[in-house]
Specification:
The structure is a single chain. This protein has 7 helices and 14 strands. It is an alpha+beta fold and about 290 residues long. It has one domain. The longest helix has 28 residues.
């Protein structure tokens, strides 16, 4: 494994490492949803298709990573079809996604804008590190040779895209209500119906041809730009790279929002999630008595 990486570094790092380079990488994000897992029994195929169509702008997005040797800024390309996002719980999940994410590798600094239930936060903390395992596998992505690396990361409370539907044996009450003849054939998944995994495997494909440690979102720390990421049901694939553009935008950290650490923000998310579950339980109890 080491001879392969060394050869690639010798072949590709030389020309770039001799200059102060910068660039922009564009990523296409796609998330698949198991409608059989999240929908209720009896949901029609037409209804599943309608829900998927409404959630398309949430499940398929474009992001831009602007980078130089030390810094990067990752943000979503804004589209005009935000109004077409799913209502209810799907919209709630979309509104909790992080905004701009600034990383400074040299200063071990993360600054992330995050809106959570209508309030803006500015997370300032050190960079989270993953124990990457570089493999012998490689493939070509565009015009670049990419090497596979894997890691296991702990799931944070705000990573709602990693939620799972609660197993049936933990959801007996809901099943009994369904079997009692209640009209929930197309009932929407609620916060009470889902759980978060503790860990998730991350697969990254990085290229030593662009010898910087950056990647999309919170991911970094490999000896080359990350071109593809696979996290659970989400894939991020780099579709275009512009090196040393003439009109390179400034790479600046976001500044708007209440400043908190990552730990403090996760405590806020956990508390709010617990409140949501309690509210849903209360609604269910009132409905049952009616």
């Amino acid at each position: 494994m080491k001879p392969i990486i060394t050869l690639l570094l010798l072949l590709f790092m030389g020309p770039l490492s001799a200059q102060d380079f910068s660039g922009q990488a564009y990523y296409q994000s796609k998330t698949t949803v198991d409608m059989d897992g999240f929908g209720r029994e009896g949901m029609s195929e037409d209804m599943k298709k309608q829900i998927m169509a409404r959630m398309k702008s949430y499940l398929e997005k474009t992001y831009v990573l602007s980078f130089n040797g030390q810094e990067s800024l990752y943000s979503e390309e804004v589209t005009l079809d935000a109004a077409g996002q799913s209502r209810g719980f799907g919209m709630m999940m979309a509104s909790m996604e992080p905004g701009m994410q600034y990383k400074n590798i040299g200063q071990n600094q993360l600054v992330e804008a995050h809106e959570f239930f209508g309030k803006e936060f500015l997370i300032k903390d050190g960079l989270a590190t993953l124990d990457w395992e570089v493999t012998k596998e490689s493939k070509v992505i565009g015009q670049y040779i990419a090497i596979k690396a894997t890691a296991v990361k702990e799931v944070k409370p705000d990573e709602f895209n990693l939620m799972r539907r609660r197993p049936n044996n933990d959801d007996k009450k809901d099943k009994q209500e369904d079997d009692s003849g209640a009209q929930d054939q197309a009932k929407e998944t609620t916060p009470e119906d889902v759980v978060m995994p503790e860990t998730v495997e991350v697969t990254a494909w990085f290229t030593p041809q662009i010898p910087i440690g950056h990647g999309p979102g919170e991911y970094w720390g490999l000896p080359g730009l990350i071109l593809e990421l696979n996290i659970d049901r989400t894939t991020l694939l780099c579709s275009k790279i512009v090196m040393n553009p003439k009109n390179m935008p400034e790479i600046e950290a976001p500044r708007k929002g209440e400043v908190v650490t990552q730990e403090a923000f996760q405590e806020i998310v956990t508390k709010k999630t617990q409140e949501l579950r309690a509210n849903w339980r209360g609604r269910g109890s009132r409905g049952g008595r009616g």
